[in-house]
Amino acid sequence: MSPFSLPKISPITHVLRDKIQEKIDTKTKPLGSLGALETIALQIAEIQNTTSPRLKNPKLILFAGDHGITEEPVSLYPKDVTWQMVINFLNGGACANVFAKHSQIEVEVVDVGVDHDWDDSTKNLLIKKIRKSTSNFLKTQAMSKEESYQCIQNGFNLILENKYKETNVFLFGEMGIGNTSSASMILSHLTGIPLSKLVGKGTGLNPEGKQSKLQILERAFQRTGKLTDPIVILSEFGGFEIGMMAGAMLGVASEQKLFLVDGFITTAAYLLAYHLDPNVKDYAIFSHVSDEEGHIIVLNHYQINPLLKLNLRLGEGSGALAAYPLVELSIQFLNEMASFADAGVSDADKKV
C-alpha cells in the first residue's frame, strides 16, 4: 500500500476546444501561421477552461540538494558549490535571478537535501531538508523508499500552500552538483535508452572525464539491474531535489495549472511524475532542448517538441525562463490580436 495521499490528476477537458480554436483561427493572420504559439495558446486556454486565459503571479521554484555520487569523479566541481550557489540565488546574483527579473518572476529556493548548516543570516530560504545529501548510489541506494515518498509528497504539498493560491504558472529549476548523474540513471531506467547515449559532459567534463563518468554509472546500473518502478528508481539513484520537483509537478497538475519544464534534470523529474500519473502531461510545456546530449534523445523518445534550441546546459530553470516570454506572447496574441471581423480585413477564400 503506497503511503502517498496524492489525488488523481484530471486530464484537460476539451469542452471549449472548438471555440478556442475558432478564436485562434479568425485572428488577422493566415491559418496556423503562428505555429507553436497557437498550440500553446490552445493548451493554456483549455487548462484554464476559458477563451481568454491569463498568466498570473508566475513563480520559479529552485530545488537544491547534494548527491553522494560526488564521492566519485563525476563532476568538475566540488559539492560545496551547491550551497554556495544557493547563497548566490538568495542574493540575486545567478543567471536565474537575472532572467526572472526580466519577466517579473519571483524566485523561491528550497533546500531539499543540501549538505550545509545555514546560519541565522540566511534569509528567504525554504527548508524542506530530507537529510544532508543522498548516499553514494555506486555503493548503495541513494535514499530509502520512505524518503522517496517524502520527497514527492513534500513537493506536492508545497504547491498547495496558500502563498501559491493566486499563481497559475510555475517554472522549475534545480541546483545540485552531481545531479546530471542521477538524471541519467533515472532516464535510462524509465526509457530503456542506454546510458552511453544519455551521459554527457555535465558541468564541462572533457572526453576522458565523460568516459570515466559513464563507466561509474554503468557500474551503478549493474548494481541494481534494470528497474521500472519510478519510486524504486528514485530511491536507488536520487536525488532529493529531483523527487521533490516531480511531486511539485504533480501538485501543479492536480490544481489544473501550468508548468514549464526546463532541461535534462527537470525532464527526469517530469518523467518520474509522468510514470506516476500520465495526465501530468496535459499541464506541461517543454521550454528547450538542452545541450546535454541525451536530452534530445529522451524528448524524441516521447515525441516531445520543445520551444527553443539555444545549446543551454546551465540548469537552474534558465531555459524555462528564456522560453517564458514566448508563452506570454501566445496569450497576448489570443487576447489582444484583432480578428478579421474586428479589423474589417477580408478573410481567406475557404474554397481555394
UniProtKB/TrEMBL annotation:
**Pathway recorded for this protein:** Nucleoside biosynthesis; alpha-ribazole biosynthesis; alpha-ribazole from 5,6-dimethylbenzimidazole: step 1/2
**Catalysed reactions, semicolon-separated:** 5,6-dimethylbenzimidazole + nicotinate beta-D-ribonucleotide = alpha-ribazole 5'-phosphate + nicotinate + H(+)
Name of the top EC class for this enzyme: transferase
Q: Which Gene3D superfamilies match?
A: 1.10.1610.10, 3.40.50.10210
Q: What is its EC number?
A: 2.4.2.21
Q: Which residues of this protein are catalytic?
A: E316
- Which SUPFAM superfamilies does this entry report, sorted A to Z? Nicotinate mononucleotide:5,6-dimethylbenzimidazole phosphoribosyltransferase (CobT)
Highest taxon of source? Bacteria
Matching HAMAP family: CobT (MF_00230)
Q: Which family does it belong to?
A: Belongs to the CobT family.
Protein name, per record:
Nicotinate-nucleotide--dimethylbenzimidazole phosphoribosyltransferase
The uppermost taxa in this organism's lineage are: Bacteria, Pseudomonadati, Spirochaetota, Spirochaetia, Leptospirales
